[in-house]
């Protein structure tokens, strides 16, 4: 029974789970080139996004990156995010100096990858 509960929870939060999985893969690949402080700060930002019910399930937020205290939100729409609503949670994370956004890169094949 607990397996079914875990699977339902993963499915309900699949957008956020996919973002965490991509982060884990990227963190391992870049472990020698990226400062540990950026990885830890990015984990804190991701935890803040995961704890916010609107941000966690927002399909417009494709992914995010942290570099030198600046969070870059990779979005699927040019009009996102609304600084008054979505960015407040992210700006409250210790170590963040600024939050920016840009469109996420589109896969070369044109496939959306299940989005």
H and E string: HHHHEEHE
Number of strands: 3
How many domains comprise the coordinates? 1
Number of helices: 5
Strand content: 15-25%
- Overall pLDDT level: 85
Which stretches are low in confidence, meaning pLDDT under 50 for 5 or more residues running? none
What would the principal axes of the Cα set say about the shape?
A: globular
Structural class: alpha+beta
Taking the sheet with the most strands, its summary is:
3 strands, mixed
Give the N-to-C terminal Cα separation: 29 Å
Q: Strands of the biggest beta sheet: in what spatial order?
A: 1-2-3
Helix content: 40-55%
Keywords:
3-stranded mixed beta sheet, 115 residues, 45% helix, alpha+beta, globular, 5 helices
Short description:
The protein is an alpha+beta fold. It has helices at 2-12, 14-29, 36-51, 53-56, 87-91, and strands at 61-67, 70-75, 98-103.
Would you give an account of this structure?
By secondary structure, the chain is an alpha+beta fold. The protein has one domain (2-103). The chain has five helices and three strands; from the N terminus they run ααααββαβ. It has helices at 2-12, 14-29, 36-51, 53-56, 87-91; strands spanning 61-67, 70-75, 98-103. The chain has a three-stranded mixed beta sheet. It starts with a helix and ends in a 12-residue tail after the last strand. The mean pLDDT is 85.
